[in-house]
Amino acid sequence: MTKQIIRTDQAPAPVGPYNQAIISTGKLLFTAGQIPLDPLSGEIIGTGDVTKQTEQVMHNLTAVLKAGGTGWQEVVKTTVFLKNMEDFPAMNAVYALYFTEGQAPARATVEVARLPKDVLVEIECIAVVP
Are 78 and 85 spatial neighbours (Cβ–Cβ below 8 Å)? Predict the structure, then answer.
């Protein structure tokens, strides 16, 4: 299997031994989980506000998808990690802006004990590269 590493300065740089995304030979792009980091300052956006944090996460994922030659319309699966499941409605309201009902991907949402940098939300996705 061959793979292509995707990196963009329009999303936060990896803070560990991983890449922003990988495209596999099958033309699938697998993103790393994105948290609400500003790609320029490296600062958390929206401390304590899951709506603002989700907006930044989706912005970061948009940049990674674009760098991989794809977009939201090609996303086939997402995984959402929430610090508190009570934040689901606020996260979902932002998330829903990126998909129409007919083209929304499969999704899993889980509550976790802790996320990197103590953020409230992290999202990863898999997309087809046309």
Answer: no
